[in-house]
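If your schedule permits, I should be very grateful for your opinion on a structural question. I would ask you to consider whether the tokens describe a fold that such a sequence might reasonably adopt. Thank you for your consideration; the sequence and its tokens are set out here.
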Amino acid sequence: MVIPKQNGYNYKPIADGKVFALDTVYKQFEYIFTQDSTVVNARVDFQFNEGQGTVWLDSIEVIEVNAVKTNPDDYIRFEYNASKNDKSISLTRCLCRCKRYARFRKYHT
């Protein structure tokens, strides 16, 4: 788990922490957080469970970025056809190389 915290006094979290699923294969992770602007002395803590093996950290960077939080519902649409019939679903806008409509077919095995 990665947790940005206030350095000193009570070491309170200054942003939401992030849990990463570790594996035996090399992976790159990215974590964007918004720091409480009133904190002038901060740190980033890494917490690992004991007895889970060896963990290697490499090329850790803390950089300031201009990021905009978005709502995934604005970009992802999920439709499920629970009936045995074909169903046409109209899209209100074109999403990444698609036609103006989609057709979903229920497959039975």
Notes: Residues 3 and 45 are 5 Å apart (CA to CA). The chain has a mean pLDDT of 79. DSSP finds no helices and four strands in the chain.
